[in-house]
Amino acid sequence: LRPALPLLLGLSLGCSLSLLRASWSHSAAEERCLAPGRPAPPGRGAPPEEAEERPGPGHEDFRPRIVPYYRDPNKPYKKVLRTRYIQTELGFHERLFVAVLTSKATLNTLAVAVNKTVAHHFPRLLYFTGLRSAKVPHGMVLVAHGDERPIWLMYETMNYIHQHFGSDYDWFYIMQDDTYAQAEQVKALVTHLSINQDVYLGRAEEFIGGDEQARYCHGGFGYLLSRSLLLKLHPHLDSCRNEILSVRPDEWLGRCIIDFLGITCVSELQGQHYHTYELAKNTEPEKEEEEEFQAALAVHPVSDVTLMYRLHKQFSRIQLYRAYQEIQDLQMQIRNLTALTPAGEAGVTWPVGINAPFLPKSRFEVISWDYFTEQHLFSCPDGSPKCELSGATKADIGEIIESAVEQLNRRYQPLLRFSKRQLLNGYRRFDPTRGMEYTLDLLLEAATQKGHSHVLAKRVSLVRPLSKVEIIPMPYVTEATRVQLVLPLTVQDLDFVANFLDMFAMNTLDTHDNALLTLLFIYHPYDAQRVGQVDVFAGVKAMVGELEKRYAEVKIPWISVKTEVPSQVKLMDIVSKKHPVDTLFFLASVWTEINMEFLNRCRMNTISNWQVFFPVHFQEFNPALVYRGEQTASSSTDFLRDGHFDRHSFAEACFYNSDYMTARTKLAADILDRDEVLESMEVFDVFLHYSGLHLFRAVEPGLVQKYTLRSCNPRLSEELYHRCVLSNLEGLASRSHLAMALFEQEQANST
C-alpha cells in the first residue's frame, strides 16, 4: 500500500475540505446581513407559506407564475379581429410620403411633368391644389381643398396628411410642382436619418426682419418633416392659422414650427446634408458641370415642362455614370481580394461580381443551350423544331448582337473598327443563378486606321444578368370567399362520379367549407330523346338526393344540356347566366379530388378584375405499369412520386364570373355569329386572347388525380384532340417504367 498512500491521503484531505467549505457556505447564507427597514426572515419552525416571500427586484430566484387560460362558458365567445396586414399589427410604418403642392393653372403642365419624371420612384405621392380643373390627368391622385389661398392650402394639406397618413409613414416630403427632386437621393437620405428625432430639414432661409437665429425651410426646394414633428405640430395648426400672418406658405409653416415647437430649419442633420441648386435664367442643364449641381437633391425654379424633362435626363445620366463607376470600383476590389484567397486569380468569375454558372450534379441537371440564327429559333415553345424569330425574342437577339459589336469596338478602337456581316451561330440558355447567357459566332469586317479591311470570325460570350427583384403589388384577397364548383358530366364519366361526390362530402361538407356544387349533365341527342324512358344520369341524381338528405342545409342543383360536341366555352356560357356576377367559379373534372387546401389556394390566387388561376394537376401513372403487381406506396411523402404534372390539361380553372363575362363579350364581338369557332376553344383561350388579366398557371400539388384512360372526343378541334391524346400517352408511366416494361416483355418473348 505504500505507493498508493499519497493518493489516499490526498482524497481524504480533499473530501474533508469540501465538506468543511459546504458547512461554512450554508451558515453564511443563513446569517446574511439584512437591509435596513426589512423584516428578518422567519425561523426554521415557521410554516412554509410564511417562509415564502414574494419575488422582488432584488431576488435572483424569481420563478414565473403560469396563469392558466380560462374562458367563462356563460359569456359569449368574441372572435379576435386580426389586422389585414402583419406590418399593421406589429406597428411597422412605410418609409416616405410625398406631397406636391400645385395649382389649377399648372396642374396639366408642371404637375404632369413631375408625375412622369419622379412619381414612379416614390412609394406614395399625392397632389394638393386649391381648385381642380374639369379633367384630372391620368395616373395622378389629386386632393382639392376648394380655396386657392396659399396659406389655406398649406393649412389644409398639413391637416389632410396628419388625418390620413400620419400613422402610416415615418417621413413626409413636401415639394412644389416647379421643383425637380432626385427621388432616389431623397429616399437614400431618409434611410440614414433617425426617426426618433423631430426633423425639419431643407434649405434654411432667414425671416425678413425676424430673429437671426430662426430659420424656415424654403418651399421651392422641398423640405422633410418627421412623423414625430407632424404629430406634435397638428394640435397647434388652428392657432397658427389665426395668429400668424404671412404671405408665403413656407414662411407661415416655419414660423408655426418655431413658435410652438421651438424647432428651426436645418440643412444638415446627423451627418446628412440637404444639397440644393438654384437655377438661373436660360440655364442649359446639359452644360452644368458644377459639383453643387450634380450633388443637388432638389433644383428650383423649373419654369416650364421642357426644362423639367431636360433636368431629368441630365440627372439620369449622372446617376447612370455613377452606377457604372461604382460597378467598376467594386469589380476592381473583387479582383484584388480574390487574389488573396486560396483559389487565387482562378477564383474570379466572369463577369466579375456576377454569380458563377450553375454546376450540375448529374446529367439530369444540365441546362441545355438553344440554337438560333438571325431568322429562326431552333427550340420553339410549342415543341416544333424550327420557328421564325418574332416579338420579344427577335428584339432580344438583335439587341445582343448590337451590344457585342459595340463592346468589341469599345475595346479595340481606335486601332480597329468592327462591323457585323453575319451571325454564323448563336446559342443561349437561361441560368437561374445568374441570368441569360449567350454565345455568338460573328462574321465581322475589321477596318484599320489606314483603311485596310479584313473579314474574320470571332466568338463572343455575353450575359444578361438578373436585375433587382421587384415585388409586384397585388390586390387584397381573403380565404372567406365562397367557391362555386362546376362539374360537367358525360356518359363516359358515370363510373367516377361516386368517388368525386364522396371526396366532396368528406372534404367540404363535413368540414363546413364555404363551397357549393353545381352539376352539368351533358346529354347526347339520342339519350335526350329517351330520357323519359331511360335516364342515363338517374344514378347520379339518386346520389345527389342521398347527399341532400344527409346534409339538410345543402342543395346541389343540376343543369341538363343536349349537345354532340361538349364545348367548354358553350357549357360555361350556360352556367354563367345562372349565377351572380361576383361568383367565384372552380371548373372541375370528375377525376378531381377536392380538398380544403386547394380551395383556399383557388381563393387566394384568383383576384377579380386582376388574375385568373389555371392549376396544373398531378396525374398519377398507370399502376399496372409502375408497380407491376407490387404493393402501391402508401407513404404520405411519396404521394407525388409515381406521376407527373399534366401540362396538357386545362380542364381545371378558377375565375370570377364578371371576368368571364367581360372576356366573353369581347369574343362575341370578334367572332360575330360563327359559333363553330367556340368548338375549338377552351376557357383558357378566352382569357388568354380576350382579357387583359394575369393568367396564373402553376403546378398544384394539392390537386391529385388517379390514373384513368380519358376518352378523347374526335369531334373537337384538332388541337384539343391532340392535347387529349398526349395527356393520355404521357400519363401512362415514366421513361424508366416504360423501359422496364419493354425489357420484361422482350425477355418473356425470348423465353
Would you kindly provide a written description of the structure presented here, covering whatever features stand out?
The chain has 751 residues and is α/β, with parallel strands linked by helices. It has 3 domains: 88-275, Spore Coat Polysaccharide Biosynthesis Protein SpsA, Chain A; 370-465, Nuclear Transport Factor 2, Chain: A (Roll), CATH 3.10.450; 483-630 and 638-738, Spore Coat Polysaccharide Biosynthesis Protein SpsA, Chain A (Alpha-Beta Complex). It contains 22 helices and 27 strands. It has a 6-stranded mixed β-sheet with strand order 3-2-1-4-9-6. The protein has a 5-stranded mixed β-sheet with strand order 22-21-20-23-26. A 4-stranded antiparallel β-sheet has the order 14-17-18-19. It starts with a helix and ends with a helix.
Task: Summarize the entry for a quick read.
With 751 residues, the chain is of the alpha/beta class.
- How far the N terminus sits from the C terminus, by CA atoms, comes to 85 Å
State the secondary-structure class: alpha/beta
Annotated CATH topology of the largest domain: Spore Coat Polysaccharide Biosynthesis Protein SpsA, Chain A
Annotation field: number of helices:
22
CATH level-1 class of the largest domain: Alpha Beta
Approximately what portion of the residues adopt beta-strand conformation? 15-25%
Q: What is the architecture of the largest domain at the second tier of CATH?
A: Alpha-Beta Complex
Average pLDDT reading: 86
Secondary structure: number of strands: 27
Helix content: 25-40%
**What would the principal axes of the Cα set say about the shape?**
extended
Taking the sheet with the most strands, its summary is: 6 strands, mixed
Strand order of the largest sheet: 3-2-1-4-9-6
Number of discrete domains: 3
